[in-house]
Amino acid sequence: MNIEFIENKNLELKKEYTDNLLKSISAFSNYDGGIIIIGVDESNKQVVGVLDYINTKMKIENKINDTITPRPRYDINVILKNNQYILEVIVYAGINTPYLYKGIAYQRHDTSTLPVDQESLIELSLKGKNITYDQLEVDENNLTFNVLEKKLRQVKPIKQFDNDILITLGLITNNKYNVAGKLLADNSDYEFGVDMVRFGNSISVFLDRKTLSKISILTQYDEALSMFEKHFPEVEVVEGLKRVKKTAIPYEAFREAVANAIAHRNYLINAPIKIEMFDNRIEIISPGGLPQGMTEENYLKDNLSILRNKTISNVMHTIEIIERFGTGIRRINNAYVEYERKPKFIIKETYIKVILPNLLFDDKNMNEETRILNLLDINVEITRQDIESLLNVNKTKAVDLLNILKENKLIDSFGSGKNTTYKKII
């Protein structure tokens, strides 16, 4: 009889005990915890049992205590299933990360257990010390903060901007600047920053480009807003007998997306924030996926705030660039609440992309294939029914158009039948 267990990121089945199980215990301890069931054949889910379960339980306890450092929190339960005894190893998420098995920290990737990379190892070490990367001390002595001082004076009545202010803001700890201080300083040697491009009618045509590095992240923020205002200014349109000012992309949505990217990006990744401006949209791409402990649902619904860069976020909140923690996505969505076109959020392990559609973009005079590709730029994934609605065509015509794009290797399909979806080939 099959057991009702399916392997996933937090559940592993083992036919019998082997030392490889200790790698999974390291992985579960380092991240979200998990369960290992011993005595179930992972290939067919058959219960095979653990014959000498008492000694096996003791062996596992000794192995964990002797080979994993620091010692993780776990429980081992004996369970009677189908008249056979199996072992349930419950591993709890640890607070003293990283948990090393033979000197190596592990992580789960789907149903596999793998060593962590250097970036993840640093993040685990910081988590174990209860600090974020931006709170690490740096060997710098001659930083200036003219940009920060100006912004602070705009919102706070301060008499003198000195080291006491920097200590209060958390930019100096133990008489040393930290990473946040270096990033907020007027100049630094950090190569990554913001790379902004205004494309023409293809990604081969650069109408404007500005690459920012080695300057304050506050200056990068200001320059991004200036670039936006240059290429997406308010325009006057005629509605009835009146001329009305309209914005192609809501300023507040762009401002919030850039502020979020600067405040919450992963500064361990040596890559810039990318701001790509097209006729029909703007894409803001932030290095690093979601911080540990945050799910995609948490992110999209703004119902959980986990700060990857605590000090930077606190400073940006103090100078009123970030209005309030945990409301960024809501504010972006609210900027589009009155419109049919909506922003999109693409969440991957290594980056987060925010797509802001141009509300004034009109492609009704373009050919049908181009209009489908334009829709994919914004929606990322579409169905045949989306094409029927967009172009006001029947099912046969929509299928023909999608097949043409597939034959030209511009899109690909996923699934089958009425559940088929289509994505652009990048």
Structural summary, described in words:
It is a single chain. This protein has helices spanning 21-30, 53-67, 118-128, 146-155, 163-168, 179-184, 217-231, 251-264, 296-301, 310-318, 328-335, 368-379, 384-391, 395-407, and strands spanning 11-14, 34-38, 68-69, 74-81, 84-91, 100-101, 104-109, 112-115, 172-173, 176-177, 194-199, 206-212, 235-239, 242-246, 273-277, 281-287, 344-347, 351-357, 381-382, 411-414, 421-424. It is flat. The longest helix is centred in the first third of the chain and has 15 residues, at 53-67. The chain has a six-stranded mixed β-sheet, with helices on both faces. A four-stranded mixed β-sheet has the order 1-2-5-4. It is built from 14 helices and 21 strands. The protein has three domains: 11-128, 2-Layer Sandwich (Methyltransferase, Cobalt-precorrin-4 Transmethylase, Domain 2), CATH 3.30.950; 194-357, Heat Shock Protein 90; 368-424, Orthogonal Bundle (Arc Repressor Mutant, subunit A), CATH 1.10.10. It has 426 residues and is an alpha+beta fold.
